[in-house]
Design brief:
The protein is α/β, with parallel strands linked by helices. The protein contains four helices and seven strands; from the N terminus they run αββαβββαββα.
Amino acid sequence: MYRFNRRTALAGLSGLVLAGCTMPSPAPRYPELTFTHLPPIRLDAATLEIVDGFRSPFASPNIEHLMPVSPATAMRRWAQDRLMPVGRGGRIVFTIADAAVIETPLAPTPGLRGAVTKDQSERYDASLEVQITVDGGDNRRRGEVTAEAMRSRTVPEGISLNAREKIWFQMTEDLVTNMNGELETAIRSFLQPFLVAAT
């Protein structure tokens, strides 16, 4: 005969609740890419608008949606951390035009040589293009700069997912570091009239 033991049931339930409450949350595997250690770029405009002009297809051969930090995510953070509107009118429009990362399978070494050769199995090509427009708020373009950056990496056959993700993270980090330099140069060259010195 089945007998319900309330004490045993309650003890088991409390154990489950305790286990659920004490489960540690997993720590992030990669550091957050931020740019607050760099001086802000102060521009004569009242607002900052970030436009995601790139839409990932979330399908092969694109893999940016699988990366620990995608180039688009990193560039949005760059704009938030570095572009500072300090004017009374107008706006800054930061547009991410391209942020794709494409995976291309590589052909293995043929024949007997291929049996003893550890080939590179895939190549990843990352491209980033952004545009900064400063206008007076009346749809008249006052100043504009565009910058591009690219990175490519190959990975060996048999690479683990962790090692692959580490390479993807390094690609994003290198790509955005390159883009940061390109944008700083372009802004100094073509948006000089809108730069506001810190007081």
